[in-house]
Amino acid sequence: MRNGSDVLLRTSPSDYKNKMKVVMEMKVRIDQDVCIECGLCASTCPDVFVLNAGEKASIVECYQNGGSDIGEVGEPLRTCTEDAAGSCPVEAISTR
Ligand code: SF4
């Protein structure tokens, strides 16, 4: 007969990590076609957003996942990221 601990014991480290990733990480995306390069996101949450001169806002490299406009951040950066999204005057940042 199986119980919950059997399932946990049979979960490989990579499966566990993937399950925790789902719980811990938030996806963030910048619509760079909409970005007006105001810099508010980078000043509100510089750990996640960067605005280099002459470029659209992008995700800090270590949090990128599939491009400079797409990333994933962990729980400690959730509030900061959401605040930055809320500060964007053209609603170019989405989170989920
Ligand atoms: S706050 Fe919005 S418009 Fe301003 S730089 Fe960031 S993404 Fe671009």
As for the number of domains, it is: 1
Low-pLDDT stretches: 1-7
Tally of alpha and pi helices: 4
Structural class: alpha+beta
Strand residue content: 15-25%
Q: Which architecture would the CATH scheme give at its second level?
A: 2-Layer Sandwich
Strand order of the largest sheet: 4-1-5
Radius of gyration: 17 Å
Largest sheet: 3 strands, antiparallel
Bound molecules: iron/sulfur cluster
Mean pLDDT across all amino acids: 86
Sum up the overall morphology in one term. Answer: globular
Query: CATH top level?
Result: Alpha Beta
DSSP strand tally: 5
Q: Helix fraction?
A: 25-40%
Distance between the termini: 38 Å
What's the SSE pattern? HHEHEEEHE
Report the CATH topology name.
Alpha-Beta Plaits
Secondary structure blueprint with pairings:
Layout lengths: L3 H6 L3 H12 L1 E5 L9 H5 L4 E2 L7 E2 L10 E4 L4 H10 L5 E3 L1
Bound molecules: iron/sulfur cluster.
Task: Give an account of the 3D structure.
The protein has 96 residues and is an alpha+beta fold. The chain has one domain (25-95): Alpha-Beta Plaits. It contains four helices and five strands. The protein has a three-stranded antiparallel β-sheet. 20% of the residues are buried. Iron/sulfur cluster (SF4) binds next to helix 3. Iron/sulfur cluster binds next to helix 3.
